[in-house]
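URGENT: need a sanity check before tomorrow's submission.

F., can you look over the JmjC domain-containing protein record below? I want to be sure the sequence and structure line up before it goes out.
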Amino acid sequence: ALKVTLLARETCAEAGRRSIWQIGQPQGGIDVLDELPSPVDFYHQYLRNEGGPFAGIGKPVLFRGAARKMPAFQLWTDEYLKEKYGDIVLDQVETEKKETRTKYPHEDWTMSKFLENYDKTDLYSTANTPKQLGEEVYLLPLLNCGGYTKKLASTVTWFSSGSTRSVIHKDAQDNIHCMIAGRKEWIFWRSDSGIDTPAMGWVSAEREAEKDPAFKDAYGTYVGRLDVDNVDLQKFPRWDQLQWWNMTLNAGDCAYIPRAWYHFVESPPQRSISVHMWFGSKGKDKFDDTACKALEKKGFDVSDYLLRFSDCSFGWEPENKSSGTKCKMPTKPLGLGKKPAQKPSDGSRSKSEL
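Structure tokens as predicted:
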């Protein structure tokens, strides 16, 4: 997987620079699975990584081909999206592909307007996934039960013509990220690697703006004083000591990114669509098999694709105990496994919830 970065590395080397890909202690790729683990195996082996080298902080893993089974993978051409969803509003369209967090996004573009402009500009949709699009994207079966559906934070659809680059940052929640079209290259650093310090170039943008005009209008916390294309190791020497792992996320793949793991993401110059979902960590909780038993009692196989994004509510916040989320009990799977033994007689969705 590291071979895909060679061109970028050589380009930087020719210019006398060392990019973020050329420093540190590369550990190779993360785990790659061709079969999805069960909800309980995912909890023990990856979310908690019990007895493993990442115990307590989670272990990233790539699920090869897991998004190929979703309707979005086959359907989401520009023509289809414009015809069926042209009027839906994208609530965040960035105006830069290399993220700096200093420019305000558009907040009211329709899908049609975005599609007419994205492939000839630096536009990059990072909108909350519209409910309508959520009808064609499924939760991975490993989240069907275990308690995860009670802690669904938010979902974002990333859409651009490629050549995007993120800042180095971390997320507060666990993340399932699925690639619908295109490819993304990732670097991961452990959550306990101490990157969130001034000595590593970490900033709180709002506070930084009070003393540095370069951060005016910037937002959030991230590595804001490091140039990923030309890393200053004299100023930030510890970056050359950090272990890191890489991942190539191809169209049809999904990945689990544990909460608080630092990461950098870039994409080649090609049409790129991905959908991710942040959810609350169960790392400190016991695995809750209540929903597993409920699904099995209804005749479902928990390894099937059962729950669409549109079937679920989002908005869980760890500080708000009343912000729990839920998903409607399905009436049939996506059509990839056995069908349930029982269905509501009227063919409608059951009022039961997970």
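My own read: Residues 75 and 81 are 8 Å apart (CA to CA). Residues 2-283 form a domain with the Jelly Rolls fold (CATH 2.60.120.10). If you see anything odd, call me.
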